[in-house]
From TrEMBL:
It comes from the Bacteria. The keyword Plastid does not apply. Residues 237-314 form the Multidrug resistance protein MdtA-like beta-barrel domain. Residues 87-232 form the Multidrug resistance protein MdtA-like barrel-sandwich hybrid domain. GO terms for cellular component: cell envelope; membrane. GO terms for molecular function: transmembrane transporter activity. This is Efflux transporter, RND family, MFP subunit. It comes from Mucilaginibacter paludis DSM 18603. SUPFAM superfamilies: HlyD-like secretion proteins (SSF111369). The lineage of its organism: Bacteria, Pseudomonadati, Bacteroidota, Sphingobacteriia, Sphingobacteriales. InterPro entries: MdtA-like_b-barrel, MdtA-like_BSH, MFP_Cation_Efflux, RND_pump_MFP. Belongs to the membrane fusion protein (MFP) (TC 8.A.1) family. Keywords: Transport. One of its GO terms (biological process) is plasma membrane copper ion transport.
Length: 398
């Protein structure tokens, strides 16, 4: 009886171990199944893949990068300026009070046009001294003529003639000095002789042009030599460009320049280099290059405007693609390079490659790849914009 109870307990113990083993195996199998059913991690595709039908429907055309004879250019920055002879500071020779200003800023004036009137009390004294010298000269001249006649007749003395001659030339020089002084102040001497004494003198424009900044007001006292306004003639406006040492040997007088006004909606104008400085500017290792602007359209060009210029240094064989083959994104420029063609599937893979660009001519644009491309690489000559749109859409989806 005891033996049967022992066998029963042993059988129950072994059954428990078996159930535990089966339970452990079942848990492991469930884990393995969960791992097997987990989806594989997505891998970002390398580039874009299009079928032949897609390429044909959107007009994508592929081909090699061409070699074209395009103008080689040098990029330079600078600003507009006028020659010294086309910009004048309007100053006064004698101090006084501004009685009237006849112009306003931005007004067009001609050479010799009245700009302002200056009151000066010393001016009255100059006119009085001139009239006194003029009246006294009548006597001096008569005495000189009389002594000259006596000398010719042999009746006079040489000493009296010499004294009269010296007085005559001295008084004549004094009158000439007064007349020159009055003329510089804008007063006609012959009008004073008739008794027209004035207490103010005019300020005339030294050149024709546009009135710039006016620095004085009516009623203000100005010292001699003080500039009260400026006149600028923009008809001879030119551009001062800074060309660095590495590019200087390629720049010559007579080369064509294309200017882009950075603050004028990128308006494009042309010009020609007419001068190259022979010294560096400060420590920038840059040389100032002067270019004449062809402003036939009479664009509103103002000295001080900043420009970006492309200097044409001659044509040379360079890598070029159609303008439509280059797309712009996030301030960079790209082309789409064919990386793989699958003849069986009829698909083509493209990869975006960043490039630098140069001159644009006859529908082609100069490029310089910023990464190494395969030899004889094909690119998307047409339809690059569609590829860019698809690339942007794919990136957002991922």
């Amino acid at each position: 009886m005891k033996i049967d109870q022992y066998k029963l307990i042993t059988a129950a113990f072994l059954l428990g171990i078996g159930l535990a083993s089966c339970s452990g195996g079942g848990g492991k199998k469930e884990t393995d199944t969960k791992a097997d059913t987990e989806e594989p991690r997505k891998v970002k595709p390398d580039g874009l893949e299009l079928t032949a039908e897609q390429m044909q429907s959107v007009g994508i055309v592929t081909g090699p990068i061409a070699q074209k004879n395009l103008d080689s250019v040098i990029k330079a920055n600078g600003q507009l300026a006028v020659p010294p002879q086309n910009k004048a500071d309007v100053s006064i020779l004698s101090g006084g009070i501004i009685n009237h200003i006849s112009v306003i800023e931005g007004q067009q004036v001609k050479r010799g046009q009245l700009l302002a009137m200056i009151k000066n009390q010393d001016l009255i004294k100059i006119q009085q001294d001139y009239l006194a010298a003029k009246n006294n000269f009548t006597y001096v001249q008569a005495e000189y003529n009389r002594q000259q006649q006596l000398r010719e007749a042999g009746a006079g003395t040489g000493k009296s003639f010499q004294s009269a001659e010296a007085t005559y030339h001295a008084e004549l020089s004094r009158i000439t000095a007064y007349e020159s002084q009055l003329t510089q102040l804008g007063i006609a001497p012959h009008k004073i002789v008739n008794g027209n004494i004035v207490s103010q003198f005019p300020v005339l424009s030294p050149i024709g042009g546009t009135i710039g900044h006016i620095t004085a007001n009516t009623g203000a006292f100005v010292q001699p030599g003080t500039s009260i306004m400026e006149v600028v003639d923009n008809s001879k406006i030119h551009c001062d460009l800074t060309v660095f040492e590495k590019d200087l040997m390629h720049v010559k007088v007579g080369q064509k320049v294309s200017f882009q006004l950075t603050n004028q909606e990128n308006q494009l104008i042309t010009g020609t280099i007419n001068g190259i400085n022979k010294s560096f500017e400060n420590e920038s290792k840059g040389v100032t290059v002067h270019a004449v602007i062809k402003n036939k359209e009479q664009k509103n060009l103002i000295p001080g405007m900043y420009v970006t210029a492309l200097i044409s240094t001659g044509s040379r064989l360079t890598a070029a693609v159609p303008v439509d083959a280059v797309v712009r994104s996030e301030g960079k420029q790209f082309i789409f390079v064919v990386t793989q063609k699958n003849a069986k599937k009829g698909t083509v893979k493209f990869k975006k490659a960043e490039v630098g660009t140069g001159v644009t001519e006859l529908g082609f644009i100069q490029i310089k790849p910023l990464e190494e491309l395969p030899a004889l690489a094909n690119i998307a000559l047409k339809g690059a914009f569609y590829l860019q749109s698809k690339a942007d859409g794919g990136a957002e989806e991922e």
